[in-house]
């Protein structure tokens, strides 16, 4: 079967610039596609973060004309490669739009520090109109004729519209099909109608059936015009067709359900595998997990200045400290966890209200609670390896990666059964324990009580039924959520829309 040719467009790519899980997908999926015999390239903006990444970067000599309203802006293109691969990463340069991020001043890829905290750049809409149009102009210069352009999240949502409405009849574009992945439907890129003036798209597309949704909506553009729409888990694909999770687009998605699917993100086992993780105190496999994992637990307790108590259950959490991630119900249940004799360790960054509450919890319980406010890659690995249970009680979770890391590290995750968490974690019911299928612990109702009761049940196994708990650990570590599995599913989707057998 002939390999596919795919151009992946994303606003961030792991190793170059990252704010969330989108970057992980944009880096790992093209590499996995290439390993499977396909031709893949990536295109992203040339941020300052890319320069700081340390990856070799070269000029291509390509200069693109990018129409923006009544002007045409020149755009130079640079090139790098995904680490340890031959997959090119094309970098779209335009200094006024993309060379503004600076960690010293709190300016990020999409936001800057304002009086009330972080706020979006006022010109984000214009910035990503430019990026989408530049991607379309780049297509003839990438070295192959793509079968599929794979756009990701609102920042690339105009690409399917440009392909369908502006470029379809141009030489070299007629056979290209588009896939659009919704990583988190809560972020839609909605801007005043006037932004249409920059796009060059026909004004009549601004209507409730196409581009209009509380303004000019990038995400809706991707959903309406792409040949295939997918999200990052089958359960989330169903959830976003409901009023609870659809953020106003549930009607549209229900009407277009025939082109909507869910594919669970892969887990990068090159970087997240206790068998060869350089960040942890002792490496381990399913064969020696119960001998070596306790060394990781002791290291975790030391790093967070907690008593090194081998039999005290450690509940770990690595998350953005925002309402979506369940930090509110975690804090509400925290005293109950302490009363159950647990230690709690939280690593993350987010809303100040949660920073303050975590700080207060630690101040009150300095020997029982450890926190690190911010993100630290090494500590994230240490928490995954050293915890006994991993807390991930998300209000909603399109896919989630940390629960997959936890499975691999033999740290059974405690999750709310939503989105990708429902698709990747098998609840330790008596039936699933008997069948040796259980990989973690899950609950349905989004309450602190439900979370507390689920942890309490997990501790029953941990303390009173250690054979069952160990079986959960071994079963969890045996799961395969690799990118090869996800890439195969994307290949099937690409072949379906492109007609390539």
TrEMBL record:
<comment type="similarity">
    <text>Belongs to the glycosyltransferase 1 family. Bacterial/plant glycogen synthase subfamily.</text>
</comment>
<comment type="function">
    <text>Synthesizes alpha-1,4-glucan chains using ADP-glucose.</text>
</comment>
<comment type="pathway">
    <text>Glycan biosynthesis; glycogen biosynthesis.</text>
</comment>
<feature type="domain" description="Glycosyl transferase family 1">
    <location>
        <begin position="303"/>
        <end position="461"/>
    </location>
</feature>
<dbReference type="Pfam" id="PF00534">
    <property type="entry name" value="Glycos_transf_1"/>
</dbReference>
<dbReference type="GO" id="GO:0005978">
    <property type="term" value="P:glycogen biosynthetic process"/>
</dbReference>
<feature type="binding site">
    <location>
        <position position="18"/>
    </location>
    <ligand>
        <name>ADP-alpha-D-glucose</name>
    </ligand>
</feature>
<feature type="domain" description="Starch synthase catalytic">
    <location>
        <begin position="5"/>
        <end position="254"/>
    </location>
</feature>
<dbReference type="InterPro" id="IPR001296">
    <property type="entry name" value="Glyco_trans_1"/>
</dbReference>
<dbReference type="GO" id="GO:0009011">
    <property type="term" value="F:alpha-1,4-glucan glucosyltransferase (ADP-glucose donor) activity"/>
</dbReference>
<dbReference type="InterPro" id="IPR013534">
    <property type="entry name" value="Starch_synth_cat_dom"/>
</dbReference>
<keyword id="KW-0808">Transferase</keyword>
<dbReference type="GO" id="GO:0004373">
    <property type="term" value="F:alpha-1,4-glucan glucosyltransferase (UDP-glucose donor) activity"/>
</dbReference>
<keyword id="KW-0328">Glycosyltransferase</keyword>
<dbReference type="InterPro" id="IPR011835">
    <property type="entry name" value="GS/SS"/>
</dbReference>
<dbReference type="Pfam" id="PF08323">
    <property type="entry name" value="Glyco_transf_5"/>
</dbReference>
<keyword id="KW-0320">Glycogen biosynthesis</keyword>
<protein>
    <recommendedName>
        <fullName>Glycogen synthase</fullName>
        <ecNumber>2.4.1.21</ecNumber>
    </recommendedName>
</protein>
């Amino acid at each position: 079967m002939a390999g596919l040719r795919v151009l992946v467009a994303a606003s961030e790519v792991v190793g170059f610039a990252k704010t969330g899980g989108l970057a992980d997908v944009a880096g790992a999926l093209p590499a996995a596609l290439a390993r499977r015999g396909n031709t893949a390239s990536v295109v992203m903006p040339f941020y300052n973060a890319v320069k700081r990444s340390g990856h070799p970067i070269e000029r291509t000599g390509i200069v693109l004309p990018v129409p923006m309203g009544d002007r045409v802006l020149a755009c130079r293109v640079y090139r790098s490669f995904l680490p340890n691969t031959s997959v090119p990463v094309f970098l779209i340069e335009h200094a006024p739009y993309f060379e503004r991020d600076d960690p010293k001043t709190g300016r990020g890829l999409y936001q800057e520090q304002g009086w009330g905290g972080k706020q979006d750049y006022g010109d984000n809409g214009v910035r990503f109109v430019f990026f989408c149009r530049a991607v379309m102009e780049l297509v003839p210069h990438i070295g192959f004729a793509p079968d599929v352009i794979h756009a990701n999240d609102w920042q690339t949502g105009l690409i399917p519209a440009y392909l369908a409405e502006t470029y379809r009849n141009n030489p070299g574009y007629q056979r290209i099909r588009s896939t659009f992945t919704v990583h988190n439907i809560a972020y839609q890129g909605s801007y005043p109608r006037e932004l249409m003036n920059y796009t060059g798209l026909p004004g009549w597309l601004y209507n409730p059936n196409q581009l209009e949704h509380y303004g000019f909506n990038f995400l809706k553009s991707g959903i309406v015009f792409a040949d295939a729409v997918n999200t990052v888990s089958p359960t989330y694909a169903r959830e976003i067709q409901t009023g609870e999770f659809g953020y106003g687009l549930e009607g549209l998605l229900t009407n277009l359900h025939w082109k909507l699917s869910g594919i669970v993100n892969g887990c990068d086992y090159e970087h997240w595998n206790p068998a060869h993780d350089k960040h942890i105190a002792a490496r381990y496999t399913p064969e020696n997990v119960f001998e070596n994992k306790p060394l990781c637990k002791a290291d975790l307790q030391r790093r967070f200045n907690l008593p090194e108590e081998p039999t005290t259950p450690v509940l770990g959490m690595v998350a953005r400290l925002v309402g979506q991630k369940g930090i509110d119900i975690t804090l509400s249940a925290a005293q109950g966890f302490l009363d159950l004799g647990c230690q709690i360790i939280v690593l993350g960054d987010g809303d100040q209200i949660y920073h303050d509450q975590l700080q207060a919890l630690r101040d009150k319980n300095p020997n029982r609670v450890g926190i690190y406010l911010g993100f630290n890659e090494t500590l994230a690995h240490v928490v995954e390896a050293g915890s006994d249970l991993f807390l991930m009680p998300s209000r909603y979770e399109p896919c989630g990666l940390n629960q997959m890391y936890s499975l691999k590290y033999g740290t059974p995750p405690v999750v709310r059964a939503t989105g990708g968490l429902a698709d990747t974690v098998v609840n330790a019911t008596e039936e699933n324990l008997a069948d040796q299928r259980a990989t973690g612990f899950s609950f349905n109702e989004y309450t602190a009580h439900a979370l507390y009761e689920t942890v309490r049940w997990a501790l029953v196994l941990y303390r009173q039924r250690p054979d069952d708990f160990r079986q959960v650990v071994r079963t969890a570590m045996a799961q395969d959520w690799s990118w090869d599995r996800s890439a195969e599913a994307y290949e099937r989707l690409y072949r379906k829309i492109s007609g390539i057998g």
